[in-house]
Design goal:
This protein is of the alpha/beta class. It has one domain: Vaccinia Virus protein VP39 (Rossmann fold). The protein has nine helices and seven strands. Helix 5 links the parallel strand 2 and strand 3. Helix 3 crosses helix 4 and helix 7 runs antiparallel to helix 8. The longest helix has 20 residues. The radius of gyration is 17 Å and the shape is globular. It starts with 11 loop residues before the first helix and ends with a strand.
């Protein structure tokens, strides 16, 4: 199977099995999630989220949606952007939302961020609701990538922008294999040392291997009808921000 194609070709039973697996996994790692993000990105994940939030909201106003918000960092970055009235942060895992709610309260954004439980494959919102829809480090974990993106486009208003911030497979004949090998070894080791959960963090490198390369994800945005599609690589090419506008 070509690199990154597995997540695009799933059946009904596989979707449900992965939904249950991911929900259970993120329930287990919720308490150590922020610490591991900081370690794995060298503290850069906050700056990357700010860049994604700026791109998502640039020139727009209204309500923003953060799909699979986790502990709420991207939702908070969106709430701080000019023109954004309210941010809805949605997640499947109640434990993540509890942590996000505490974080929102500490930052004084309680009146700007609403947190709801929901499924990225069946967003509980009417069509054309949001000025922008964003996701941060979450698309790898949805059991049906195309289905999730379809839902995000559905709830996006015409002229609105879809943005994803994601770890992507590194391309290149020399750097790619080197970084993939390091990632596969170091991430589970960090999980074992910092949060005493090697098994859960062994999932992360596997999820990246199954995710489409940056250029293929951009093609998928175009296949869904988005215009002005582009992307920017960050973090030695291991992270990418993708964007597109709904016609």
């Amino acid at each position: 199977m070509p690199l990154g194609e597995g997540i695009l070709a799933v059946t009904g039973p596989e979707v449900e099995a992965k939904r249950r697996y991911v929900a259970h996994l993120f329930k287990d790692i919720a308490r150590g999630y922020d610490r591991m993000n900081t370690v794995m990105t060298g503290g850069r994940h906050h700056a990357w989220r700010r860049l994604a939030a700026h791109k998502a909201t640039e020139g727009l106003s209204g309500i923003a949606l953060d799909v699979a918000t986790g502990t709420g960092d991207l939702a908070l970055a969106l709430a701080r952007q000019p023109g954004i009235e309210t941010v809805v942060g949605l997640d499947l895992v109640g434990g993540m939302l509890v942590l996000a709610q505490a974080k929102v309260g500490r930052t004084g954004c309680r009146d700007r961020v609403d947190l709801v439980m929901g499924d990225a494959l069946a967003l509980p919102f009417p069509d054309a609701t949001f000025a922008c829809v964003a996701s941060g480090f979450s698309l790898r974990n949805v059991p049906d990538l195309r289905g999730s993106l379809d839902e995000m486009v559905r709830v996006l208003r015409p002229g609105g922008r879809l943005v994803s911030l994601e770890i992507v497979p590194v391309e290149g004949r020399l750097l790619g294999p080197l970084l993939r090998c390091s990632f596969r070894r170091l991430v589970p080791l960090a999980g074992a040392l910092l949060v005493r959960d090697r098994a859960s963090y062994a999932y992360l490198p596997r999820s990246v291997d199954r995710f489409p390369p940056a250029v293929r994800l951009a093609d998928l945005f175009r296949e869904l009808g988005l215009l002005d599609v582009g992307y920017r690589r960050l973090g030695l090419g291991m992270v990418a921000i993708h964007w597109g506008i709904k016609p």
